[in-house]
Amino acid sequence: MAVLRRKHKRRMAAVLTMLCLITTVSLGGVAAALIGERQGSVAGLYGSTMLLEDAGGYVLVGVIAFSLAVVITVLCIRYLEK
């Protein structure tokens, strides 16, 4: 049983690693597609860069990343409780 449990834990670690890698690459792709080549900047006004019309991509990627992190955390906690 101990060998089977170790195999299962290694398999789950590999699956979670690949899930994180795929998520990172896809979020990078989404960011590149939404943001484009330009990057907004306002001299001397650091907080106002989020007010530019092209900053929506940054916000969207941040919200998606946070949501995925919450889902993965909840799944891991439920898996450990089993």
Descriptive labels:
single chain, 82 residues, mainly alpha, 2 helices, elongated
Q: Major sheet, described briefly?
A: none
Write down the Rg.
Answer: 19 Å
Q: Report the helical percentage.
A: over 70%
- Number of helical stretches of at least 4 residues: 2
Order of helices and strands: HH
Stretches where pLDDT is under 50 for at least 5 consecutive residues are: none
Task: Tell me the quaternary state.
Answer: single chain
Distance between the termini: 16 Å
Estimate what percentage of residues fall within beta strands.
Answer: under 5%
State mean pLDDT (0 to 100 scale): 76
Broad structural category: mainly alpha
Number of strands: 0
Report the principal-axis shape: elongated
Structure report:
The chain is mostly helical. Helix content is 73%, strand content 0%. The chain has helices at 2-35, 56-81. Helix 1 runs antiparallel to helix 2 (56-81). The longest helix has 34 residues, at 2-35. It starts with a helix and ends with a helix. The relative contact order is 0.11.
